[in-house]
């Protein structure tokens, strides 16, 4: 498959290299998908891998935040802060506004 003319990479030089062994079926599938999108195999693969990497990182962050937030919530339940004047004032204003 002939590779299209290379486009500038917005000032970034591609100095690193990744290699992968694939089956003939995988290669044909990737080439077909890239052709359908009018892109080179390199562009198609790099974009797909970057998207997958970003999703994996975001999924990990989301899980990490969920665990941290759950721990903070449980800690707040088990070790509540003492009631202060600001909280009392907030409760009073809420009751006045809602009639509760």
Question: What's this, in brief?
Answer:
The chain has helices spanning 24-36, 41-78, 85-98. It is mainly alpha-helical and 100 residues long.
Descriptive keywords:
single chain, 100 residues, mainly alpha, Single alpha-helices involved in coiled-coils or other helix-helix interfaces, 0% strand, elongated, disordered N terminus
Please, could you describe this protein's structure?
It is a single chain. The chain is 65% helix and 0% strand. By secondary structure, the chain is an all-alpha fold. The protein has a single domain, classed as Single alpha-helices involved in coiled-coils or other helix-helix interfaces (Up-down Bundle). The longest helix is centred in the middle third of the chain and has 38 residues.
What is the radius of gyration? 27 Å
CATH topology: Single alpha-helices involved in coiled-coils or other helix-helix interfaces
**CA distance, first residue to last residue:** 74 Å
Structurally, the number of domains stands at: 1
Write the layout of secondary structure elements.
Elements: H1 24-36, H2 41-78, H3 85-98
Helix pairs in contact: 1-2
């Amino acid at each position: 498959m002939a590779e299209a003319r290379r486009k500038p990479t917005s000032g970034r030089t591609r100095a690193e290299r990744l290699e992968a062994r694939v089956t003939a079926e995988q290669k044909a599938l990737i080439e077909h998908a890239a052709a359908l999108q009018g892109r080179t195999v390199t562009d198609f693969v790099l974009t797909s891998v970057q998207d997958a990497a970003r999703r994996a990182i975001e999924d990990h962050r989301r899980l990490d935040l969920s665990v941290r937030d759950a721990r903070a919530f449980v800690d707040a339940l088990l070790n509540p802060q003492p009631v202060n004047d600001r909280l009392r004032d907030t409760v009073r204003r809420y009751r006045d506004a809602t009639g509760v």
